[in-house]
Amino acid sequence: MYRRSPSEMRVLILAPIGRDAALLAQTVESLGVKSTIVPEANALIQELPQGVGVSLVTDEAISTRHIHELTSWLSKEPPWSDPPFIILTPSGQTMQYSQRRAQEFSTLGNFTLIERPVRPETIESVVRAGLRGRMKQYEIRSRQAALLQANADLEQFAYSASHDLKEPLRNIRVFSGLLQKEYGKVLDQRGAGFLEMVGTAALRMDTLLADLLAYTQASSIPDERPEAVPARHALDAALANLVAAIQETNAEISAADLPRVSMRESHLQQLFQNLVGNALKYRRECDPPRISVTSTRSGQYWLFCIEDNGIGIAAEFRETIFGLFQRLHTSGQYSGTGMGLAICKRIVERYRGRIWVESEPGQGSKFLFTIPA
Ligand code: ADP
């Protein structure tokens, strides 16, 4: 949780001429709010990162260059932050001057222009309103931090649970295998059926746990860009793992020249494995699967496309299928955990790419994803 520092609610005052700054500070302090007077615009720009509730500045103290510097600082602020600026404009200016300055200040986003002379009550009300808005921003920051923490805890829990469950599950598989091997003869048909069900359930749980682990691990992809790897290697490794399904379905798989991409090979392999695996699984009964893997440059990205001639997907499911545990079929129709595409989405988004599908029922599907080049 975030604890607010006192400087985050202070009013920064920039009013270098005459007694303006002292009078403004007096008005602000009468609200029980701390104020800090800065002598010139550069000092304001240096003070802002230390925390600010509201900035109260006179128009003439801020040049166009200072506005650019402030805008550049604002652009690096986190999304929840939108600090208010109250600008006291000189009286009796031409319409042209006021319009030009209003246009310049607009890049600050959260700004209010007030023409002088200003009454203390007006200053009090705009400062109070500005601080109130700023408080709400801090509340959002605090909630966001709590949510991120809760999410990280859940991820850790899912990771530990799927990791720790693997060992007892392995024992169930080993001992049911031994039971079958050494005592299979003494079991009647009903007993043998039960034992087979134990084996099938253990195998399904093994797949579920492996997918859950892959899903949680995809969130720990580091931010820095890894060395580029040849996408062809990742595809070949994925196809090697799918060899049984490829042979069983008589699938034809083609891949055009694939580039080198800045990803961990294991992540790219996982993408190909899930997408080509689905293309094999969701095939039409009448035709053997025909699958192509291609890549083209699209601006700053590589665009990969895995196209199949399978059963296709209706428009209303084209987004939902990327959610966790979202399946359009029962396990009886097609085996699966409903996690494959969620894992793909997570990996692609961690690399700042996008994944989507273009498809029509009965007309095959194109799964497309981008990865920064
Ligand atoms: P799973 O295959 O384990 O069910 P996925 O997350 O990989 O889980 O896919 C979610 C759903 O999207 C699938 O249940 C299926 O209905 C649909 N789907 C995925 N890939 C294809 C495809 N290539 N063709 C048709 N439907 C697909």
Write a brief structural summary.
With 373 residues, the protein is α/β, with parallel strands linked by helices. It has 10 helices and 12 strands.
Structure description:
The chain folds into three domains: 6-146, Rossmann fold (3-Layer(aba) Sandwich), CATH 3.40.50.2300; 165-219, no CATH class; 228-372, Heat Shock Protein 90. It has ten helices and twelve strands. The two termini are 37 Å apart. Helix 5 (120-183) packs antiparallel against helix 6, helix 7 crosses helix 9 and helix 9 (265-281) packs antiparallel against helix 10. The protein has helices spanning 20-29, 41-47, 64-75, 95-105, 120-183, 189-217, 231-241, 243-249, 265-281, 340-350; strands at 11-14, 35-38, 54-58, 85-89, 111-115, 229-230, 252-255, 260-261, 290-298, 301-307, 355-359, 365-372. The strands form three sheets. It has a five-stranded parallel beta sheet, with helices on both faces. Strands 7-9-10-12-11 form a five-stranded mixed beta sheet. 48% of the residues lie in helices and 16% in strands. The chain has 373 residues and is of the alpha/beta class. It is elongated, with a radius of gyration of 31 Å.
